[in-house]
Design brief:
By secondary structure, the protein is an alpha+beta fold. The protein has seven helices and eight strands; from the N terminus they run E-H-H-H-E-H-E-E-H-H-E-E-E-E-H. The relative contact order is 0.20.
Length: 168
């Protein structure tokens, strides 16, 4: 279950807590931590029916599809983060249309470079294995990003390989 970061931050494991609650660009943070660029691998970018909770959060009908972009953020060959961005059709028309052409470029570089983009509240959850076909439980965070009157949803899941590196 998703919970507001500001309400549960003190209950999070110290090693991952700062990563979950940080409001800046995750790609930039990872680059600084690894001391080199982070590789973005597009796993999927397609129009699909989104999860009900995503549709409700974005204010779109439950049967409406959206452009979903799923990527893996890696350091060299080590996968660190799985990210899922949900872009409703209305947001592609005049605000976030560039996302459809990003390819292997990080979304965060644009979001955090544009002062007109506002990040909403960060929510955190301990995701279960059945979510996004992961084999183990993993920490995730999500936020709505607004540009004008349009919104997208960005969720980032910290993979076990990242948590292992943090705890090493």
């Amino acid at each position: 279950m998703w919970q507001p970061a500001d309400k549960i931050s003190s209950q999070l494991p110290q090693s991952i807590g700062r990563w979950l609650c940080e409001r800046g660009s995750l790609t930039e943070q990872l680059s600084n931590w690894c001391r080199h660029d982070i590789r973005v691998s597009v796993l999927r970018q397609d129009w699909i029916k989104v999860m009900d909770e995503e549709a409700l959060l974005l204010g779109i009908s439950l049967d409406q599809g959206a452009l979903v972009r799923e990527v893996l953020l890696s350091s060299d060959t080590t996968p660190l983060v799985f990210a899922r961005t949900v872009i409703p059709d209305s947001a592609l028309k005049d605000s976030f249309e560039f996302i459809a052409e990003l390819g292997d470029q990080p979304l965060g570089h644009w979001l955090f470079a544009n002062p007109d983009v506002q990040r909403g509240e960060i929510e955190i959850q301990m995701a279960q294995p059945e979510q996004h076909q992961f084999e183990t439980r993993h920490w995730g965070r999500r936020s709505l990003f607004s540009y004008g009157k349009r919104q997208i949803l960005v969720a980032e899941y910290f993979l076990p390989s990242f948590v292992e590196l943090l705890n090493a």
